[in-house]
Predict the 3D structure of the following.
Amino acid sequence: MIHRALKVIRQYHDLPLAQLASELEIPKQQLQKLESGEKPVDTATLEKYSLRFDIPKSSLVMFSSHINNEKRVSKKFRETAASTILDISEWVLSKNAKAQD
């Protein structure tokens, strides 16, 4: 789910993939794989997003499904809430894109 969050953040700020990759100093193909979920997101990448977009790393970690030492109920709730937030964000971005066409 973290990959969806990273993509939504980039799209919300209306940044092309190539531009963000350049700013974060990572290859465009690597960023594309991170955003598609093909490659796992590491701590260094979360730190770069945190600094670039002025978002606390803890807020980004909320979207990660691989956090240790969680109780099952809280993990399920967090995953459901995070997924809903992303669904709404993606819907708003899609609606805005259609309105601009």
